[in-house]
Amino acid sequence: MPTHVITGAGSGIGAAVARRLHARGDEVVLHARDAGRAKELAAEFPGARTLVGDLSEPDRLSWALSHQSPPDRVDSLLHIAGVVDLGPVGDLTPKTWRHQLNVNLLAPAELTRLFLPQLRAARGHVLFVNSGAGLSAHAGWSAYAASKHGLKALADSLREEEHADGVRVTSVYPGRTAGPMQAKVHQQEGKEYDPARWIDPESVATTVLMCLDLPEDAEINDVTVRPGR
Ligand SMILES: NC(=O)c1ccc[n+]([C@@H]2O[C@H](COP(=O)([O-])OP(=O)(O)OC[C@H]3O[C@@H](n4cnc5c(N)ncnc54)[C@H](OP(=O)(O)O)[C@@H]3O)[C@@H](O)[C@H]2O)c1
To answer: What range(s) does the Ketoreductase domain occupy (predicted)?
Structure first.
């Protein structure tokens, strides 16, 4: 059975992906921000292993993982966790910038570095859930969009670097997807939130599984998913 390390499995898109992989009998190793959250995930996904580390502190991830038992085999590393905080550049403080850059960009880079030996050995797959904001930035979105533009650069460089070792790299760019993050975005935009207007996280999960399940002769580099309504 393939082994998938998944961040963000506690909510939204990450939870939908984790449920699908777990239901079909794949090994899932669920990353959680702290021990309490890891316990909740372990209860929700019987048989799943967990790893603990706060993505807002990428400098500490290496130390945190060295005190746990990371899996020996990793067929895919799915970077799905993320945070968003809107605001005009004139109002955004370094703290707000740093938090989004840490969780959305530096932590994925660091986790990738830490799991690359296993990924190379398995000729595995690194998949980044990016965002439409990783391709174009709009007013009010600077810090989040910068973190996601950076995530695109990370994925593109990694793909070139690791191609010879057979590691495949995919970026998925969803548009607005229903869930807690989108509810927060609407609140910050001062708009009414209607989840039925936006992509179902299950549809993004379907896209992620399609990328993972493609046979080894091919790799999906980038895929954009937009609301269909
Ligand atoms: N929702 C959208 O409209 C949309 C659109 C485009 C792209 N995306 C991207 O899709 C991904 C998933 O979004 P979503 O809508 O599923 O978001 P979500 O429901 O808010 O879930 C975010 C996940 O990230 C985890 N997380 C946040 N900060 C963390 C930290 N410091 N350490 C460890 N884990 C942390 C959360 O952990 P807890 O469960 O412990 O809170 C949660 O599981 C994100 O990368 C987002 O940028 C979302």
So the answer is: 2-201
